[in-house]
Write a structure and sequence with these properties.
This protein has 3 helices and 5 strands, in the order αβαβαβββ. It is α/β, with parallel strands linked by helices and 116 residues long. Strand 2, helix 3 and strand 3 form a beta-alpha-beta unit. It is globular, with a radius of gyration of 15 Å.
């Protein structure tokens, strides 16, 4: 697990993803918006180890998800939904259902129970 507390410095995020051979990245909507629109090199950088990204913490407009998926077709983009007062994540949209269910917060995560 790599923690980077300097998201304002986009170069450090890109460098860490490559240097530490990150296989996953968890971000909130503003992370993806900033990386896609404010970084000159993000969309053209190759991340050979990155397998998936997750997005939660608010709704990210589908235009950004589409842009990310187009730039990194080999990386699975997983939309998630959660509530701080319930649990970290309540639902997810499987990447293979994204085109069919675009804009959805997905389906409940197996094993979560409202009676727990």
């Amino acid at each position: 697990m790599v923690l980077n507390n300097s998201f304002i410095f986009l170069g450090s995020i890109i460098k860490d993803l490559k240097e530490y051979k990150c296989t996953g990245f968890a971000g909130v909507p503003s992370h993806y918006q900033i990386l896609l629109r404010k970084s000159e090199s993000f969309k053209t950088t190759i991340f050979p180890d990155l397998k998936y990204v997750t997005q939660a913490g608010g709704k990210l407009a589908t235009i950004f998800i589409d842009e990310f998926r187009q730039s990194f077709p080999e990386v699975k983009f997983i939309v998630m939904y959660g509530q701080t007062e319930a649990t970290a994540r309540l639902s997810y949209l499987p990447p293979e259902l994204y085109e069919k269910k675009k804009g959805s917060m997905g389906k409940g995560i197996p094993g979560l129970n409202s009676e727990s």
